[in-house]
C-alpha cells in the first residue's frame, strides 16, 4: 500500500521563468506526497487546466501536462490509455500513450470542469485506473485587442518536491511532470547528480534501482517538439527548478 504524508502543490498553466507575474497563471492543487514507490499508482487529485476562447473558440484548448504515475515494474516508461467504457469529457481531450501528457484543442470545447478517466500500465502487465480533473473555467479571447488575450503555456517542468522516496536495492519509477510548450517532449539530466542506479528514460520517467542512500538534487532539461527548452531556468540556477530525490538505506 502506498502511504501518504503531507501534500505537494502542482501548478497548472505556468509561464517559463514566471515567478512573480504571469497572465495565464493557474492556481495550484494539492497532491499527496508518496513515501514508497514499490506499488504502481496514479497520484490522486491531479488537475489539467485550459482556456476557452470567447471569440469564436478557435483558441480553446487544454494545456498539455504529463500525469504522474509512480512505482510498478518499469523498463522504459508507462503506457497510458483512456479507461475502456468510461464516459470521457470530449473526443479531442486525450492522453498520449507513451509520454502520458493530456492535451486537446477544439472550437467545440465548452467552459466547465470535467473528469478524464485514465489507465496506466507497467511492463509487468499491472494496470491501475485513475481520474484526472480537466478545468476549463478560465476564459480568454483571440481578439488581439481583448484585455484577456489567449496565450499558450510556456514549457516548464513542475519543480516541486513530489518525487517519492526510494530505497536501496528496490526498483524505483516516477514520472517527470512537464507542462506547456508543444509536445512531444525529450528529457535529459542537465546538472547535478542522479542517485546511482537511476536514469531518465526517453518517456519521461526516472527509473532504476538505487544503490547508494542519500539525498540527490539535480536539474532536468526538457525540449519540446519545436525545440523550446527549459535551459534558461537551469542556467540561472533557479532553486525552485531543482528536483530532489531521497534514497533510504
Describe this structure in words.
- The chain is globular, with a radius of gyration of 18 Å.
- It is built from one helix and 20 strands.
- β10 (112-121) and β11 form a beta hairpin.
- It has two domains: 4-14 and 22-32 and 40-140, Cadherins (Immunoglobulin-like); 156-248, Sandwich (Immunoglobulin-like).
- The longest helix is centred in the C-terminal third of the chain and has 5 residues, at 231-235.
- It has 249 residues and is mainly β.
Summed up, the domain count is: 2
What's the quaternary structure here? single chain
- Biggest pleated sheet: 7 strands, mixed
Please state how the strands of the largest beta sheet are arranged side by side.
7-10-11-4-5-9-8
CATH superfamily of the largest domain: Cadherins
What key phrases describe this protein's structure?
249 residues, mainly beta, Immunoglobulin-like, 7-stranded mixed beta sheet, 4-stranded mixed beta sheet, 1 helix, 42% strand
TL;DR?
The chain is mainly beta and 249 residues long.
What is the secondary structure topology, with strand pairs?
Layout: E1 4-10, E2 29-34, E3 41-42, E4 47-53, E5 61-66, E6 69-70, E7 79-82, E8 94-95, E9 101-105, E10 112-121, E11 127-140, E12 156-157, E13 166-167, E14 172-175, E15 178-179, E16 186-192, E17 198-200, E18 205-208, E19 214-223, H1 231-235, E20 243-248
Parallel strand pairs: 4-11, 13-20
Antiparallel strand pairs: 1-2, 3-6, 4-5, 5-9, 7-10, 8-9, 10-11, 12-15, 14-18, 16-19, 17-18, 19-20
